[in-house]
Amino acid sequence: ALYEEDISGTPAELSPLPVQYADFAQWQREWLKEDVLEQQLQYWKDELSGDLPILQLPTDRPRPAVQTNRGKMHQVLLSRPLREKLKEMSRQEGSTLFMTLLTAYQSFLSRYTGQEDILVGSPIANRNYREIEGLIGFFVNTLVYRADMTGNPTFQELLSQVREKALRAHEYQDVPFEKIVEVVQTERSTSHSPIFQTMFTMQDTPRKQRELVGRSLEMVEIHTSIAKFDLTLSMADSEEGLFLAFEYNTDLFDPSTIERMTGHFENWLNEIVHHPDAPLSGLTLMSKEEQKQLLEEWDDTQVEYPYEGTIHERFEEQVLRTPEAVAVVYEDRQLTYRELNEQANQLAHYLQKRGVGPESLVGLCVERSPEMMIGLLGILKAGGAYVPLDPTYPEQRLQYILADAGIQLVVTQESLLESSWLPEEIQAVCLDRDQEMIVQESTLSPVSGVTAENVVYVIYTSGSTGNPKGVMVEHRGVCNLVHAQIDLLNLNPASRVIQFASLSFDASVFEIFATFISGATLYLGNQEDMIPGQSMIRLLQDNSITHATLPPPILSALDKSLFTDLKVVVSAGSACTKELVERWARDCTFINAYGPTEGTVCATAHEFNGNDSPHIGRPIANVEVFVLDQHEQIVPIGVAGELYIGGAGLARGYLNRPELTEERFVPHPFKVGERLYRTGDLVRYLPDGNLEFMGRIDHQVKI
Ligand code: AMP
Ligand code: MG
């Protein structure tokens, strides 16, 4: 008005102000104290009682110890039909568009984080007296909206909760936010903002085009490069549709992540308007294309392997191909494929006479030596399954396994019977003591009737709780694993593989069978060689080892430059680090292999390329993986969920634990009659289809 007065000379005729900002400030101080303040504060103390969760948005980088404010903005315009539907739904539910969108945002955040207690801040104009409507000055206050998503409500139910909360919050809007922080959050952290970490703002009076004499005005967005919170969602209503802008902290999020999140939020709004009366867990964040990508393209791992049999039959085929090649080396002893096969056959016949056949569980307690391999193959060839009993384990642990598995026969060595781990009623076949009798047996492969669906081994895993439990793995799974791994590791008769893992860990399964089924040579170290040090270094160097599977702590203690022949290194058993990728991926093929025993050794793998992030890659051949939330719904790219595994490597279950088996091996949500194993591992899809391992679920946010 004053500008126009200046240009045209027409008086602006502004009416005098009834009060000034200073008057208001003084009035507010007089009024908002003692009882009034106490009463207002009490509402917020109640509303914000208990632990206030930190919003666990899936960030691209870890949260810095001190919160930063570098930011960017991503904006889109949502379609008019969507705007109309949101408005229509608000009318029907008796809520404002603000309440509907706030509810949508809170439920969206819940899905994105897996959290059920969601706190969102929102500014309020706070000009609720006529006298101050025309004042220039800062009145805005911040209110906190806390939504409780427990019990899987429908959108309608949640909306009515949020509406009630919003109305109450407005009643108590006068108390300045900083006062609430003072009384509610006494412990402050420098890494995140207090009480809430995301804000929602809504501009619901449509922007009007202003006219000035001789001038045209136009809105220009200011990009401040600042983010006040981790994430702020701003929405504005206009005739063209709803404007949506995410302001985000660039130390936490990449632009592409926020763009994807925007798409998910838009899908979420569409789902909500179409299914307001359906439980929120059933709605999806994903577009049809994304679902197809996750379910069909990235999970398409099917590879036909021409073989349907047992793993020792595969070994026997290899024996025919390379009978005189060296199969196993231990110190100054070695066995050719033919020798190993014949000695295992003799043992197998001997065991069959003692009742071993398909589904028999036979303990295997042998020191690191070629006999360990003879014992293992002998048990399989007799038709049985081996149950590893590591002689270095405490007696109690061995006895627990013997009893739990109901083992009646153990393949062992006389020297190991000096200590008292083996109860008298269990039969012992000693490879040394009984040698003379065993060599009387035929060297031809015995017939046992064992099939791909029979148990090949039972390995005990501790899990996070309870007693160790035996995982029953079938030949089918091991055959598939070995096939996939031979391709991945490029194993051939010239390869020299170190056998590092104890038989009690299934990494040994892969070392042993991938070697024996590719015609390569397996090098056993003695116990001392298995800790990183001079002796291990010499074992690798002296034998010109080409392939090694080692856990990350060992890999980080070894220096690649010492091992000129080492070509392929697999990191397995726990999370691989960026440091390891930098150290190993440069001069050799470096692979991260991930998998629980219940999925037969390895479920996903990745061969690193330069400086990839240390993720766990994609499912191996014939294995499928799903990232699901607590309601077994697929989560989108970038969002954390529990990893479920299905396909060829799925174990039969836990020995003698039908309930636990049922709890962990759940019905396949998309394929009738099939099962998936819940790993308890928290992962997420990276945009390129690789999986990132984020830890165990018990130690993380509940999802
Ligand atoms: P186990 O059943 O004893 O072989 O243990 C399997 C568990 O070890 C998995 O569920 C993961 O928690 C962890 N694990 C195995 N391999 C990896 C890996 N490459 N990266 C991260 N964690 C791993
Ligand atoms: Mg394992």
Binned strand content: 15-25%
| Second CATH tier, the architecture of the largest domain | 2-Layer Sandwich
- Please count the beta strands (DSSP E, at least 2 residues each): 29
Instruction: Give the proportion of residues in helices.
Output: 25-40%
User: Which overall shape is indicated by the principal axes computed on the Cα atoms?
Assistant: elongated
CATH topology of the largest domain: Chloramphenicol Acetyltransferase
Distance between the termini: 56 Å
How confident is the prediction overall: mean pLDDT?
93
Number of helices in the DSSP assignment:
20
How would you describe what is shown here?
With about 700 residues, the chain is of the alpha/beta class. The strands form eight sheets. Strands 19-20-21-22-23 form a five-stranded mixed β-sheet. Strands 24, 25, 27, 28 and 29 form a five-stranded antiparallel β-sheet that branches. The protein has a four-stranded mixed β-sheet with strand order 1-8-7-4, covered by helices on one side. The radius of gyration is 33 Å and the shape is elongated. Mean pLDDT is about 95; it is low at about 700-703. Bound molecules: adenosine monophosphate (AMP) and magnesium ion (MG). Adenosine monophosphate binds near residues 461, 573, 574, 576 and 679.
